[in-house]
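Data deposition worksheet. Section B asks for the primary sequence of the deposited chain exactly as it was used as input, without tags or linkers unless they were present during the calculation. Section C holds the resulting structure in token form. Section D is free text for depositor observations; keep each observation to a single sentence. Incomplete worksheets are returned to the depositor.
Section A, Depositor: J.P.
Section B:
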Amino acid sequence: QLQLVESGGGLVQPGGSLRLSCAASGFTLDYYAIGWFRQAPGKEREGLSCINDSGISTGYADSVKGRFTISRDHAKNMVYLEMNSLKPEDTAVYYCAAVPVDLCELSSGYYYYWGQGTQVTVSS
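Section C:
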């Protein structure tokens, strides 16, 4: 019934850019806080960025601050993660997640609904 689907991942060279998209089906994201996470092989899931329900407030992990930008488009029922100046250590599976609250956090346990993930590989 409630599903999130990520897209936009792929292979990119160091220093390149990608824009990830998170699309919702079965519900609207108007009153949901959204988070972006990633997980590399053998490592814990890492919170990267989040945005509150209105899109006014955002948060970023230190590892991506200044390089990644989160945004949302209520008319399209979509959330985006713009990734610039990509590094090999950014290689991971990227996930979006949603929870029906106003404020967002970077802890994975905060979120109810998760996408299946999209692979991002940064390599020359």
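Section D:
The CA atoms of residues 26 and 53 lie 17 Å apart.
The chain has no helices and eleven strands.
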